[in-house]
Amino acid sequence: MGTRGVTPEECRFLKVRMYKNNIKIYDVLFHSVGDIQLFLRTDPDRNREVFQSYTSELESERTAGVPLEQAIDYCLGGYEEKFDQFLQLGQQLENVNKRFVAQKRTETTFVGQRPNVPAYIAGAPKNMYRTVRSEEKKQINVFMNVTYRLNTTPEQIQHRGIISLNMIRMLEQNGYIVNFRLFECCAVHNEVFLCEVVLKKPGENLNPRLCYYPMCGKSFLRRVLARIKESMPFEENWQLGYGNMLPEQLIKKLVGIGEDDIYIGSPEELHIAGKNIYQDADAFLKKLNLSDRIVIPTYGE
Length: 301
What we know:
By secondary structure, the protein is α/β, with parallel strands linked by helices. About 35% of the residues lie in helices and about 20% in strands.
């Protein structure tokens, strides 16, 4: 059994790469939440030379949620804490969205969904109606930084998740194809841990149940991601704190988030207070400044 954790040769999800100024990035990419469960179910070797004790197991349930084994099981469903409320609040925002969906236009063509009766009677060759979107679909990348401050409330975390999924639906309703990823990016000295999880591939339907646990479950952050870190072949002392948060601009460079991509930061960065979902949605969308891409609803009115 190894004492330095897994290697890229042993773990198909891991790549180790060098960035400028001798920064070493431990880059872990999971193409689904199920991949995380698959990886952790193999009980990957821990880096015992760096981690003398394991936060993923020893942290209290009050701080980190359910025990590690249950936290791993939640990756493929079963996390129900306040999920009904999550769906209900999301539906409230969705009801507002319907007034702001990009309108489709109707054109007269040779082949379509329904007949243009006057044109048919007149003998016009184009005698069918076809409904089309006004613009071609474009792909857009959405990245959510899963980390947040210790004093962030569960309501702030939940509201961020609700509004994020609402925004994705709104983008899709306005003709965008969305690629949605969640990530953690932190560092100790010149080592960076970057873990990305694909929550929605372009062309896939959005599944709120699969997104809910990674976005809102504290045991995902405190136990699942901690257990992944414990298996990394780090050389620096990650035992203390399990990594430090990085500035937003550096995070964007390390993750590869471009100017046209959407970055979702912490609830505090997005001015989410966790009290009124409509006010939080307004603050969120104002912060992201999406008005040049879609018509932005005003939820607080």
